[in-house]
Structure of Phosphoserine aminotransferase:
Amino acid sequence: MSVTYNFCAGPAMLPRAVMQKAQSELLDWNGLGTSVMEISHRSKEFIAMTEQAEIDLRELMSIPSNYHVLFMHGGGRGQFSAVVNNFLGQQGKALYLVSGSWSQSAVDEAKKLTSEAQIGSINIVENTNDISKVVIPNLNEINKDYRYLHYCPNETVDGIEIFDELESPWPIIADMSSNIMSREIDVSKYALIYAGAQKNIGPSGLSIVIVRDDMLELPSLPQSSIMDYRLAVQHGSMYNTPPTFAWYLAAEVFAWLKVSGGVAAMAKTNLDKAALLYDFIDSSDFYTSKVSVKNRSVMNVTFYLANEALNSEFLKQATDSNLVALKGHRSVGGMRASIYNAMPIEGVEALVEFMKDFAVKN
């Protein structure tokens, strides 16, 4: 069977080795004679798996001991509201930095849950000559008493990534759904990190929350119990039945990352993949990137054809060449190649060769 390279932004491709292992033990996990989907989440075998998953994630990200690791429902959008409900209280205010579609969605959700006066937002993207560039203001000059600052370091839709560490007088909350474990970060710089699983961790339906213990002392708003971080901590992320199969696959991805050299090794490969694709785009008159070089996402490479009338043909021929899910998000158009940790460099090489051939023929 020929190899298909899946460039979908999410749900995204999973490591082939992980999928093969899941396939081999789908009907008989851990010698139990049943699938991991069929056993109790409170069984000693499942608990052992979840404990190892947390150990591996803590090691991969060097998570300090004063942080809790939660495996939760709801994906990234679920955490938009959970963050507000867990930390804002009746009188709290929060500041959101807007760098693209997902950070704007977080603002929109926050405003549904509280008065607009309590949610401030700053658009940090400048568009000059059709090029998007991130400009972060001096946050220390803002004289406001915010509970937290929220931002999204990598915008999946727009192909924009923020690599600089923010200097903030308030606790920083980061939506790392599309770049978690793609490069090394200092977790201690953040009050909370959350990530929907379906890009760099596992299948959809699961989200990872890494929260500093002092944040749980802030007053909360009324909310559903399954999205309450304090209850999740008390019950080991099992206040109710968790998404067990997604948790199992996430655990397998963490194990795969460890044997693959960890986050440092993955970061080097990711930079090599992104450089290969961006260098080709920059060398061609047929394709273009609309993101400034300093803010080009390593995970989600957005690009455009000079003649957009060829878009449909490009996508058709790419699919025929086993290069799938390259269509850009409907809000921005163009193309998007999502090259998360699981994408091997051979997939990017195949894409570049196809793009070269398509440009020559058209």
Observations:
- The two ends are 29 Å apart (CA to CA).
